[in-house]
Design brief:
With 229 residues, this protein is an alpha/beta fold. It contains ten helices and six strands; from the N terminus they run βαααααβαβααβαββα. Bound molecules: magnesium ion.
C-alpha cells in the first residue's frame, strides 16, 4: 500500500474534452457576435496564438495554458481592443466549470484513500487559480492534502521537478507515492521515471506500457491500489 496517492486533474478527475467543447463553442459564438469572426477564422487564430504563446514562453511553463494571453494575442493581431480578452477568458472558464462532472468513481476513490489515512495530492500542468476552482466545483478540494501546479513548479510534467515536489509535500519517498493520470507520457511514465508508481487511466487503448498499471475507470482504483501497489 502506498503512503500517498497523487492525481492529475484534467481528463482524470473529470471529462476535460466534453467540458472544453462547450467552453470553446461559447467563446467561438462570442467571437462571431462581438468580433465578426467565423468559427473557422477563430479556430485558425486560436491555433496561431497557441503557437505564439509557446514560442514566447519557451513552451514548458504553466503560461502556455493561459487563455487570457491567447485571446490577448489574437486581438492584438486583429487590431481589436484587448478589452475583449478578460470577457472571453471569464466566458471560457465559467462555461467549462459549469459543464464539469466528476468521472465515475472519483468520490468513492477519494473517500477510500482518506479512510485509510493515505496522503492525497494533486500534480497538475496548469495555473493554480483555475485548478482550485475545478477542485471546488468537483467538491473534493477539502480532501486534498497538497497540490503542485506547473505554475508553482516552474516546469511541466513530465519534468521530474514537478514529481519531486509532490513527493516532498507528501513527506515520503517517491517509491511510496502512486501517481494517477490520463496521460501515459506526462503522468504515468513521468511518475515512473521519478521513482513513483504510475497508474494510467486509459481510454481503452491497447498501447503497450511496461511496468505501468492501467485502470479504465477511477472506480477500479481502490482494487488496484490494494492488489498491485
Ligand atoms: Mg490530464
Amino acid at each position: 500500500m502506498p503512503r500517498a496517492v497523487i492525481f492529475d486533474i484534467d481528463g482524470t478527475l473529470y471529462d476535460y474534452s466534453a467540458a472544453h467543447a462547450h467552453a470553446f463553442r461559447a467563446v467561438t459564438d462570442y467571437a462571431a457576435k462581438a468580433l465578426g469572426l467565423t468559427a473557422e477564422r477563430f479556430e485558425t487564430l486560436h491555433d496561431w496564438a497557441d503557437e505564439r504563446l509557446r514560442a514566447h514562453t519557451g513552451g514548458h511553463c504553466a503560461a502556455i495554458h493561459d487563455r487570457l494571453i491567447r485571446y490577448q494575442l489574437m486581438l492584438e493581431r486583429l487590431g481589436l481592443s484587448i478589452a475583449h480578452a478578460p470577457k472571453m477568458e471569464r466566458l471560457y472558464w465559467s462555461t467549462l466549470i459549469g459543464h464539469m462532472a466528476p468521472n465515475p468513481g472519483l468520490h468513492e476513490a477519494f473517500d477510500w484513500i482518506k479512510a485509510r489515512g493515505l496522503g492525497l495530492g494533486i500534480g497538475t500542468n496548469m495555473t493554480a487559480n483555475w485548478q482550485f476552482a475545478k477542485l471546488e466545483r468537483l467538491g473534493v478540494l477539502g480532501q486534498v492534502d497538497f497540490m503542485v501546479t506547473s505554475e508553482e513548479a516552474g516546469t511541466e510534467k513530465p519534468d521530474q521537478r514537478l514529481f519531486q515536489l509532490c513527493a516532498e509535500k507528501a513527506g515520503c519517498a517517491p517509491e511510496e507515492c502512486v501517481f494517477v493520470g490520463d496521460s501515459l507520457r506526462g503522468d504515468a511514465l513521468g511518475a515512473q521515471a521519478a521513482g513513483m508508481r504510475g497508474i494510467w487511466l486509459h481510454d481503452g487503448t491497447t498501447e503497450d506500457a511496461p511496468g505501468i498499471a492501467r485502470i479504465d475507470a477511477l472506480s477500479r482504483l481502490p482494487e488496484t491500489l490494494s492488489k498491485e501497489c
